[in-house]
Specification:
The protein has 368 residues and is mainly β. It has one domain. It contains 6 helices and 24 strands. Helix 2 packs across helix 5 (271-282). The longest helix is centred in the middle third of the chain and has 14 residues, at 188-201. The chain is globular, with a radius of gyration of 20 Å.
Length: 368
């Protein structure tokens, strides 16, 4: 895809809406529930300084409408540069009302060894998962003028585990009858305060990406007949003062999930984290619009450039990667060309999805 220089920012939340009854606390829950469904919420203003992660802006035009976008790193059309974003991991350890514990610290070792941070041989290069997707997306430039283009996460610093006791009225928890695992579903609004507080208390610089990690702990929004849970989200928030010069902090929350918790076999281990890493790279501030598109299974529409959302409804969305004897399940992402409906695609191998270039072979379909 031909791109040109330019600039922009916002916040976004990924949701898994599950048609479940309300579980009693500490009950035997019937898991093996449907997989993730994601939506986008919120926005923040574009800062006039670079007091945030490195980013660049361009646009594409579809059916006579121009859609601006902002991405992490540098413009591969004009830069042959490698961007490395400093990264920290903040594990959350939850103490449930009955004293049982779900501790994200227990999955830090696996996450550090995952393709989100370790190199793997992809067709776009031997590199990290998120960078491999970006290089594939901009292969027209990477394969010619910008072979040194990379967008990588720095080797993470693991910050102190945040131990949090959850009030009984803010959590639903049970041992799943299918997975046999303890699972917790925590109030999203209650959790959001804890997330932002941790980032502030730990003094994470706005130029650093914090990743909040939980284990078999997801978030919920309770409605009358629907139990909704959030497996991961990325977003941004700004300081209140600065007249546009204030810092803007981007972040990721992702829950590590054991196999069998969700009915969709793709959803396990780092699928949520890989989904969020790619979306953060392609839409760090959550405000990139796109022509309204249908999910890959035709069930619903969105109008934003969130690369993980279109395919997370598919049971074969995971792209298994084995590193050091452990098989991880990062998610195949939609490429920019899928959203812009470019025919033919100038991504690697004419693809619209990556790393599994055969997952879809055509651009997005307009909404009815």
């Amino acid at each position: 895809m031909r791109i040109s220089p330019c600039r922009t920012i916002c916040a976004f939340v990924c949701m898994i809406c599950l048609a479940l009854p309300a579980f009693a606390q500490n009950a035997k829950g019937n898991d093996g529930i449907p997989g993730p469904k994601f939506i986008t919420l919120g926005s923040v203003a574009v800062p006039r300084t670079n007091n945030t992660v490195p980013h660049w802006t361009s646009s594409f035009t579809t059916d006579g409408v121009t859609y601006p976008f902002t991405m992490v790193g540098t413009n591969p059309a004009t830069s042959n540069a490698t961007t490395v974003v400093p990264t920290v991991i903040i594990p959350f350890k939850f103490i449930l009302p009955d004293g049982s514990v779900l501790d994200g610290t227990t999955k830090v070792h696996n996450v550090l060894g995952s393709p989100n941070f370790r190199n793997f041989a992809y067709t776009s290069g031997t590199t990290q998962f998120g960078d491999a997707v970006q290089r594939a997306e901009f292969w027209e430039h990477v394969s010619s003028t910008s072979p040194g283009y990379h967008v990588r996460l720095g080797a993470p610093t693991v910050l102190p585990t945040q131990t949090i006791a959850i009030p009984a009225n803010q959590v639903v928890f049970f041992v799943g009858s299918h997975s046999g695992k303890l699972e917790a579903f925590i109030s999203a609004s209650w959790f959001a305060d804890k997330l932002q507080n941790a980032i502030n208390v730990l003094h994470v610089p706005p130029t650093t990406l914090p990743i909040i990690l939980t284990y078999n702990s997801f978030l919920y929004i309770h409605d009358i007949n629907v139990f909704c849970c959030i497996a991961g989200f990325h977003g941004a928030f700004a300081s209140r003062n600065g007249n546009g010069n204030q810092q803007v902090q981007t972040f990721i929350y992702a829950g590590w999930g054991d196999p069998g918790i969700f009915r969709n076999p793709s959803f396990q281990d780092i699928l949520a984290l890989s989904h969020e890493v790619s979306e953060w790279m392609n839409d760090p501030f959550g405000n990139n619009p796109a022509p309204p598109w249908q999910f890959a299974n035709g069930a619903g529409c969105q109008a934003n450039l969130e690369t993980g959302d279109p395919f997370e409804v598919l049971t074969n969305a995971a792209f298994p990667v084995t590193l050091h004897g452990f098989t991880y399940h990062p998610q195949t992402e939609a490429l920019l060309q899928w959203f812009s409906r470019e025919v033919p695609s100038d991504a690697i191998s004419g693809a619209y999805s990556y790393p599994n270039t055969a997952l879809v072979t055509h651009p997005s379909q307009p909404c009815p």
